[in-house]
Every structure is written in structure tokens, then in C-alpha cells.
């Protein structure tokens, strides 16, 4: 790092600019950990407050994140997902993001009121309930809860740890034709925060979706939450 101590540009901003350049060029890749403030200050002969200000500048820009017990890291690249009838696993795999899945819950369960209404079955009807944690770059990205009609597909938890749900449905001959989807936001619960490596109360993106097959039958209800610092939805609007 080269600093011009005679420049009118503040030293903290020079440090921040060069760190940002290293991040955007890939020299500091997502997940890379920065040295602590004392080490950086000693290396570049700067005061600790100057280094702290430079780091905070990049935290505010969303390029760095401070984690208790870990230190300061380069943030993982944000996943930008088009609003189409695809699964998160499909979109991540297509983008070369190498998704990983932890299956947290898998098995028959009575349908709650919301899921029953979305699937068009009486409350308490036995359904297949799945709850999975999706990760990319070794970090949690989303917590996915899905409810399917019982007997729709023959699948195991081990299979879903390696394959996406929509991929599995298509392979079983289920043709997803249309879906109703709602996107929102809310604060993370303590349990969600623990799984997503966030603080309780951190804002999360939410998405609920009911997917229908060729016959207009509801075949899947999903209720998902996503880390807002790593995920966004995008879509194109067309004038009438």
C-alpha cells in the first residue's frame, strides 16, 4: 500500500480506496480476513483511529463486515436473483456459486393453517415438510421451509442435501407452470439469527410462494428468509 502523506486527501480515505481496489480486483476475495487494526496501523505507520476510520468507511459501503470473535472480513458477493419460476439452488448453480445444503427437518407433518390454505387442503392434513439451510462460499444465505402434498414425490433428505427441490420435482414429472409470490422483510428471530450467523433483530428479506402444476393444482408452498446483506431480488418493469 502506497500512501501520499503530503496529499490533501485524508490518509484514512487513501487507505480505504486502496483496500476497496483490492477487494474489487479480487486481490482480497470474499471471506478474506483483514489483519487487526493494531497490526495494520504498525505496518503502514498510521494511528489506530485512522485505520479504524478507513475500515468503518468500507463497512458503511457494504464491502467489509465486522464479526465478533472473527474480526473484519470481506463480505461475500451478494446473490442477485431474477424473479422467475426457478429455485434458489438452480439460480446459484447457474451462477457458478456452488450451493451447499443442510437439511434441518424432513418428514411428514400436519399442515398448519397457512400451508393448508395455500395447498388447498384441510388444516391438519398430512404433508411433507422440509426445512433447509442454504449456504454459498461457506456462509449461510437462506433458511428455506417448504411444504408439499403427501405422496407427491418419493425423495430422501440425503437427496435434498445434494439437489434442488425444483430439480427434484421436475425429475419426478411435476411440471411447475405458475406461482404466486410475495416478497417482504422482517426482523430475524433468535433462532433464525443463530442459523444465518446474524444478530437477532437483523432485517431479513422474506419470500412466500405457492407453485402450481399444469392442472392448476398447488404442488408446493415455500416460506423463506434470506440474509439481506447477501441477497436481493431483481426484475424488469415494462410500461403499459
Describe this structure in words.
This protein has 240 residues and is of the alpha+beta class. Helices cover 28% and strands 34% of the residues. The chain has helices spanning 11-25, 37-43, 48-60, 88-94, 113-119, 157-160, 165-171, 190-196, and strands spanning 64-67, 71-74, 79-82, 100-110, 126-136, 139-149, 176-187, 203-213, 218-227, 231-234. The strands form 3 sheets. Strands 4-5-6-9-8-7 form a 6-stranded antiparallel β-sheet. β5 and β6 (139-149) form a beta hairpin. Pfam families: GntR, UTRA. This is GntR family transcriptional regulator. Keywords: DNA-binding, Transcription, Transcription regulation. Residues 9-77 form the HTH gntR-type domain.
Largest sheet properties: 6 strands, antiparallel
Strand order of the largest sheet: 4-5-6-9-8-7
End-to-end distance: 52 Å
Helix-and-strand structural type: alpha+beta
Global Rg: 22 Å
Beta-strand percentage range: 25-35%
Form type: elongated
Low-confidence blocks of residues: none
The overall strand count is 10
Number of helical regions: 8
Average of per-residue pLDDT values: 86
Helix share of residues? 25-40%
**Helix and strand element order:** HHHEEEHEHEEHHEHEEE
Keywords: DNA-binding, Transcription, Transcription regulation
Pfam family, one: UTRA
Domain HTH gntR-type: 9-77
InterPro entries: Bact_HTH_transcr_reg, Chorismate_lyase_/UTRA_dom_sf, Tscrpt_reg_HTH_GntR, UTRA, WH-like_DNA-bd_sf, WH_DNA-bd_sf
